[in-house]
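FW: tagging you since you asked about this chain on Friday. Here's the raw sequence from the shared folder, copied in full. Didn't touch anything.
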Amino acid sequence: MTAKEYLRQMYRLNELLKSYGDELAMLRQLSNGLVSCMQEHVSGGELPGDTKTINTLAKVVELEEKIKKEMDSLILLQKDVHESIRNVKDKDEQLLLRYRYIEFLNWNEIAEKMNFSIRNIHRLHAQALQHFWSKNCHAIVNTMK
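HL: got it, structure written out here
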């Protein structure tokens, strides 16, 4: 894995976290509806314990827990990427890496924000990747084992 490949994971991680968050919100809405349905049965004098509703609710809760665990692992990976970028000593390089791999800005946006030409941004990016990898390659390789 190269420095660029490692850092590019951030976009996918971000998208995955959004997707899991959306799914979790949907599941919570579903489970709230199931609980309301069960409460109506109880208040309506019917016997609680509609087996199908209870089984569905249990599956929803189980899936919520799996999603939360997956989100936790993704957040840990994001934390590792943030810390790895902080290990780069040059502040311009650090800022460029943050703009590109954490804020997902394109090259023109980065050049404008940093007040550099596109050519200088690409040169700085190449240096930043080299410094990033030299500071972090051992830690990254160890986390992949």
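FW: The CA atoms of residues 93 and 126 lie 9 Å apart.
HL: agreed, and The chain has five helices and no strands.
FW: great, closing this out.
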